[in-house]
Amino acid sequence: MDGIILQLFDGLSKGSAYALIALGLTLIFGTLGVVNFAHGALFMLGAFCAVLLSQLLTISHTVVDESRTDFLGNPMQVDIPYVVEWFGEAAGNAIIDWSVPLAILFAIPVMLLIGFAMERGLIRHFYKRPHADQILVTFGLAIVLQEIIKYFYGANPIPTPAPDAFSGSFDLGAVLGFDPFTIIYPYWRLIYFVFALIIIAGVFAFLQFTTFGMVVRAGMADRETVGILGIDIDKRFTVMFGIAAAVAGLAGVMYTPINSPNYHMGMDFLVISFVVVVVGGMGSLGGAVLAGFVLGVLESLASLNAVIELIPGINQVVIYLAAVLILLTRPRGLMGRKGVMED
């Protein structure tokens, strides 16, 4: 039972990443009708926003510390980060330690600008082109972006740890009524799950309860009529592309302590995220979120030793098998709408 509970929580944290990426994909498809194969690269760029901020915060200069000497009795030269010098040792070290959460504030404007630039500079020219053209050009863009990251950061993963306060594990078993220390789970994975719920709730609330969101939803349902009313729906859809990019970027930022950033991490999530979107139903935001969590949990449960011993390799293909079964019984996905990509 403890193994099942651990895998269940692992599935929720993994499903959180699937759900966030699929949510952004669905936002772009639902508003612009574009199949964006560069969305995984946005997840990767968000992760490297955290890496970049961490590197910026640790930029240092060498000073002579008279209070410390080497074995010859000479004063030692030490590297002092500028942020420590500016804010003091306690505050400066705390800022460095909390670089990943602080990267959220750094990544939001960066990812919004990247989203706006992508939509205005490239994507807008493919609105009325076949989906195959959209897939080719966005997939090519994803390859270009990951090669740029590889050029500057290399091919090896870059460890980006969580703050020290959340680097340990939580005695989940004691909370759930089991014996103490029977179910130990990392703090950061729980934080990632809660963070994903907050972002998802924020996006849905924005679309549901704001005037901007209501206009966007109306434009998703009937773009021509909204345009006739004198509303510049194209500008609002550009903003939505930026928001979708920011959602993917924030998912990448907070995922860095779980999986050290590397240049191909976007591609690792991209294919599964598209499976999630299709299973949830093309154009369905709720379906994308639901499918993300369901498939994440299913993949983790299939990784149990007892399951692998019974069906070797099932954890590698269970998501795709589930997708086949769901689409055979519900061709439009779990919450898909009639007429979406059925022409």
TrEMBL record:
Membrane topology field: Multi-pass membrane protein
Transmembrane regions: 16-35, 42-64, 102-123, 192-216, 236-257, 269-298, 310-328
Major subcellular location class: membrane
Gene Ontology terms: biological process: amino acid transport
Keywords of the record: Amino-acid transport, Cell membrane, Membrane, Transmembrane, Transmembrane helix, Transport
GO cellular component terms listed in the entry, alphabetical order: plasma membrane
Compartments reported by the entry: Cell membrane
Any Pfam family: BPD_transp_2
Source organism, top-level taxon: Bacteria
GO molecular function, one term: transmembrane transporter activity
Membership in a protein family: Belongs to the binding-protein-dependent transport system permease family. LivHM subfamily.
Name assigned to this protein: Amino acid/amide ABC transporter membrane protein 1 (HAAT family)
